[in-house]
UniProtKB/TrEMBL annotation:
Pfam families recorded: DLH
Protein name: Dienelactone hydrolase family protein
InterPro entries xref list: AB_hydrolase_fold (IPR029058), Dienelactn_hydro (IPR002925), FrsA_esterase (IPR050261)
Claim: Hydrolase is one of the keywords in the record: yes
An MF annotation (GO) of this entry: hydrolase activity
The organism of origin for this protein: Flavobacterium fragile
SUPFAM superfamilies: alpha/beta-Hydrolases
Amino acid sequence: MKYLYLTLILATMNSFGQLVKVDYADGNQKLEGFFAKAQKANPKKAGVIVLPAWMGVDAHSKESAEALAKLGYHAFVADIYGVGNNPKNTGEAGKNAGYYKNNPAEYQKRIQLAIDQLVKAGADKNQIAVIGYCFGGTGAIEAARGNLNVKGVVSFHGGLGKAANSPTNEIKAKVLVLHGADDPYVPAKEVEAFQNEMRETKADWQMNYYANSVHAFTHKDAGSDNSKGAAYNELADKRSWEAMKTFFLEIFR
């Protein structure tokens, strides 16, 4: 009887979308992602990849996956750096993130591996979106640049720069950029170059600016001092999430 009771408890936990650790790999590099099952009817089996910020898989990315599951999407937090490689400080984070920004094919490969896991977990391979925060926001755009099989991508306060060695391909995925109007880490020239790239690649793109917002405006642990360049903004956080929800209704219809 106790084993039946335990089985019922586990089944109940899974039905509420708690994160499940998923071990996978890129060659010899072990990866550790987290899956959240859709908690509402999901007839299209739509799935969303969540790309963490530059410190690697964190509470924020996991919370986003849980929130997406509550909306009715299968969600998967991708491990870009790999087990044992999460940075210990911002210096290491900059180095790790910089490697993938300068080697977009490697970034795209790690995103694709996460997509493969999301599909294995129940998502339709033709009903996938990618969202990301900061460094992860850059990754979301790279998924579009690399023409991965995704319906759309959403960048929350992500870097917009394109690696010099990266080819310029026609972009098929729809693109939504959610940007702090006062973000000092994404200069005007980078924004302009990105917008020109979107026009050149004939992308279906949108870009929302949020007033009084700097980098990391969705991260509550970033503090509230805009003068530091990265700070939480509750209104921008809520507005950007609503914009993402509307975008998903469009791409998954």
